[in-house]
Design brief:
331 residues; OB fold (Dihydrolipoamide Acetyltransferase, E2P); 5-stranded mixed beta barrel
Length: 331
């Protein structure tokens, strides 16, 4: 396998969460900033919980800090609630700073409340206890989720077409789909640290994603893709069974502004093949996704994700508020 191909796989495996933020390069994950201050506003909303803090960093920078946290489902499973903070609370927090030092903006890592309780981020992953009887049920993407990285971005140059490079060069944060409360698409949609649900029916399978409450129908009744069928954001999916594994073939994707890495869109030729298969101990679901889109990527590539079986959990509704979605663009 060519080195550039391997690097593309690694890049896309670890940048799943980059699409849960406005840019994978937004925050400097190589350093942290500590801030002491007072909460001026606490927004328990989606697609991100935000904490506004009037405070001073360890370097002496005093400002109203815009502190970005996870969506409410991830926060709730990590012990947070809508009443964890109130305006006027004195807090201490640690965050990854914005790469633009002029911005008092960061990604929350931990926060200590006036009561001395410290809350972390993404601490509520499902434990691997129960074995599944099949792929149906609720699955958690958090335990095996890998944090984002941008270190391999230059390696993508060898597989991106000129159309992809041009689109990436023209990409700006306001074009990020969730900033307009529009969901991201496969393969990134399946690589996030949220809950997923699979419902198996006689002639179809329903795939639900907690992030943006996406629901997909996979037809398993032997039909083919309709010639000239309507293109939609998540495409038209048909499936078949290989033993207990589900193979999903999806075409007719609508154009998406961000699909194959930061700033790289997809087009009418996009085609994915997903494989959902239980692990040997039946406690995890392995998801492999073959992606081709010759308009923007010169050869097919494969990415993967692993979900933990979480039968005691339910997907939380995921409303999106436009003002909240675009907070990061305020500065």
């Amino acid at each position: 396998m060519k080195r550039s191909y391997c690097c593309l796989l690694a890049m896309l495996l670890v940048t799943g969460s980059s699409f849960a933020h406005h840019s994978p390069a937004a925050f400097d994950r190589g350093t942290t900033v500590e801030v002491q201050g007072t909460v001026s506003r606490y927004d328990w909303k989606n697609p991100h919980v935000y904490i506004f803090v009037e405070g001073t960093s360890g370097s002496g920078q005093t400002s109203e800090w815009l502190v970005e946290a996870d969506p409410t489902p991830l926060m709730a499973r990590s012990g947070w609630t809508a009443s964890t903070l109130t305006p006027g609370d004195a807090v201490e927090l640690t965050m990854f700073p914005d790469r633009d030092p002029s911005k008092a903006h960061g990604l929350l890592q931990s926060l200590t409340t006036p009561a001395g309780v410290t809350f972390g981020m993404r601490t509520g992953g499902a434990e691997l206890r129960d074995a599944a009887s099949g792929i149906a049920g609720v699955w958690d993407g958090l335990p095996r989720f890998a944090p984002p990285s941008i270190d391999l971005a230059p390696e993508l140059e060898t597989l991106y077409t000129q159309a992809a490079l041009d689109a990436r060069a023209a990409y700006t944060a306001d074009q990020y789909p969730p900033a307009a409360c529009v969901a991201i698409v496969s393969p990134s949609l399946l690589q996030l640290p949220y809950l997923y649900e699979i419902e198996r029916l006689d002639d179809r399978v329903i795939l639900r994603t907690e992030f943006f409450s996406v629901e997909r129908t996979v037809y398993t009744d032997g039909r083919d893709h309709a010639a000239g069928g309507a293109r939609t954001l998540h495409g038209h999916s048909i499936g078949r069974w290989e033993g207990t594994a589900l193979i999903v073939d999806t075409r007719l994707y609508a154009d998406s502004r961000l699909a194959h890495g930061p700033g790289v869109p997809s087009g009418a030729q996009k085609h994915t093949i997903e494989r959902f298969e239980l692990s040997a101990d039946r406690r995890e679901l392995n998801v492999q996704i073959l992606v081709e889109d010759p308009e923007f990527v010169s050869e097919p590539y494969m990415v993967s994700a692993t979900w933990a079986y979480a039968p005691d959990r339910e997907l939380d509704p995921f409303g999106c508020e436009r003002e909240n979605a675009s907070y990061f663009m305020r500065e």
